[in-house]
Amino acid sequence: MKKIINALLFSATALLAIAGTQAQAGLVDFEADTLGSKANGFISGGVTFSDTNGSGLNVMNGLPTECASASNHCLANFGDDTGGLRMDFFANMASMSLDFGNDNLGFIAVDGLAYLQLFMNNVLVGEASVVVNLDDIMNQTISYTGLAFNSAIFTYTDANKNPVGLIEVVDNINYKSNEVPEPTSIALLGLGMLGFAAARRRKQ
């Protein structure tokens, strides 16, 4: 019986240790980043950014047609080419979303898309798309929840998902890893196991 109680105590201790961990999550809003050009490999909020075609990253502010508001910072991927904005995460993620703008009618068709591709070790595992509203203002959001991923590419495309030459401008990138059990639930389970062991010992 003593061995059983010791085993239960060990299990409960392990469960309580797990309870100290939570799903990893973050928000990248670029507010703490200095304005101006950034090299590929620029890191903000735990996410590494790069241009898939050249190097056109730039943290901007003060342009309400491109950033969420005149006081906010946002990230633009210049170049007017068919490259996209790549985001590499520090761990495997399960969901993400981002605000986007600069959907200028002069550069994208009325059925154009904001297109998000998700990759696990550079293998495509998911995608999401939103039809752009063509008002040239950052007032739309694209999101994905599904298979685990550790990188993503955002770009503008035509209706057939062929990239178009339009500057990607993004802000408020939310990301979250797979959830672990609620700490409170795990702790209660551990205490329940201890109570069961104690009751069984008294009965014997």
Can you characterise this structure?
The protein has a single domain, classed as Jelly Rolls (Sandwich). Helix content is 19%, strand content 42%. The chain contains two helices and eleven strands, in the order αβββββββββββα. Strands 1, 2, 3, 4, 5, 6, 7, 8, 9, 10 and 11 form an eleven-stranded antiparallel sheet that branches. A hairpin with a 2-residue loop joins strand 8 and strand 9. Helix 1 runs antiparallel to helix 2. Mean pLDDT is 80; it is low at 4-21, 184-189 and 194-199.
Please state the structural category. alpha+beta
Strand content bin: 35-45%
Elements, N to C (H/E): HEEEEEEEEEEEH
CATH class reads: Mainly Beta
Number of helices: 2
**In total, how many domains does the architecture comprise?**
1
Contiguous runs where pLDDT drops below 50 for at least 5 residues: 4-21, 184-189, 194-199
User: How does the major sheet shape up?
Assistant: 11 strands, antiparallel
Oligomer: single chain
Q: In the CATH scheme, what's the topology name?
A: Jelly Rolls
List how many beta strands DSSP finds. 11
Helix coverage percent: 10-25%
CATH architecture: Sandwich
Give the N-terminus to C-terminus distance in angstroms: 9 Å
Average pLDDT rating: 80
> What coarse outline follows from CA principal-axis ratios?
globular
> What is the rounded Rg?
23 Å
Gist of the model:
By secondary structure, the chain is an alpha+beta fold. The protein is built from 2 helices and 11 strands.
Please write out the topology:
Elements: H1 2-19, E1 25-28, E2 36-38, E3 42-44, E4 47-51, E5 57-61, E6 73-77, E7 85-101, E8 113-120, E9 123-131, E10 140-157, E11 168-176, H2 183-203
Antiparallel strand pairs: 1-11, 2-5, 3-4, 4-7, 5-6, 6-11, 7-10, 7-11, 8-9, 8-10
Helix pairs in contact: 1-2
